From TrEMBL:
The keyword Signal applies. It comes from Aliiroseovarius zhejiangensis. Residues 1-22 form the signal peptide. The lineage of its organism: Bacteria, Pseudomonadati, Pseudomonadota, Alphaproteobacteria, Rhodobacterales. InterPro entries: DUF1223, Thioredoxin-like_sf. It holds the Pfam family DUF1223. Transmembrane segments: none annotated. Keywords: Signal. This is Coproporphyrinogen III oxidase. The keyword Signal applies.
Length: 244
């Protein structure tokens, strides 16, 4: 309880004492690359859980697999998450990857356990003007869709990927071996799949049919619009929306 108190106070200072309600404000995407076998990761996992209480933030936990050989195999680890982290490292101009790492908005990074640094980066992203809007809609045939439109006259990336992210909202795992042996770790928004289903050029407004099903039973989903850099590397996240 004492360990959680500083996080509560810190979030209250940056985002307000009461978590925000859903509205038209832009959503900031925070990706945490983490592992159940990493002794430095539990504080970052806890911070991500706190961020999940704010509607204008989409926290995502991507469990990597390169810690699996040290006594404990992460139950959520995926090679695709390690590949995504390496792609971010390339775009940041470095070859090294580590846990816990938070990538904010696809373009900034911070050590996931350094709460003040993380909050500062998120705060700067929240202050940026909204350039793209994503809204859910529905066709006359009842098919669920999203509508994407630009909100600025400034240039946008030439190619942006429309992606659906599926995740388990909350999961608790008891760790019996490795660096975190004896701990019970609660993870928030554990990513199970990231799937692209459209490309937008930033010009005219466009609509895309949502994949069906949107998410497996017991999971939730969100849509992320992310710039595609040369070579297919992930770039800036221009907009995101949580799906009901």
């Amino acid at each position: 309880m004492r360990a959680a108190l500083p996080l509560i106070l810190l979030c209250a200072v940056w985002f307000g004492a009461v978590p925000a309600t859903a509205d038209e404000r832009p959503v900031t995407v925070v990706e945490l690359f983490t592992s159940q076998g990493c002794s430095s990761c539990p504080p970052a996992d806890a911070l991500l859980g706190k961020l999940g209480e704010y509607e204008e933030i989409l926290p995502l936990a991507l469990h990597v697999d390169y810690w699996d050989y040290i006594g404990w195999k992460d139950t959520f680890a995926r090679a695709a998450h390690t590949k995504r982290q390496k792609a971010y490292a390339y775009s940041f101009g470095t070859r090294s990857i580590y846990t816990p790492q938070m990538v904010i908005g696809g373009v900034d990074q911070a050590v996931g356990s350094h709460a003040v640094e993380v909050m500062d980066v998120i705060h700067r992203h929240k202050a940026k003007p909204q350039r793209v809007a994503i809204r859910t809609t529905q066709a006359t045939d009842g098919v669920a869709r999203i509508r994407i439109e630009r909100m600025t006259h400034r240039d946008l990336p030439a190619e942006m990927l429309v992606q659906i992210v599926r995740f388990v909202p909350r999961a608790k795992v008891d760790i019996s071996r490795g660096e975190n042996a004896g701990l019970s770790i609660t993870s928030t928004n554990v990513v199970t799949d990231i799937q692209g289903f459209g490309v937008w050029n930033g010009m005219d407004a466009a609509e895309f049919d949502l994949p069906n099903p949107i998410a497996p039973e017991g999971q939730a989903a969100a849509i992320i619009l992310q710039a595609a850099r040369k070579g297919g590397y992930p770039g800036e996240i221009l907009a995101a929306i949580k799906l009901d």
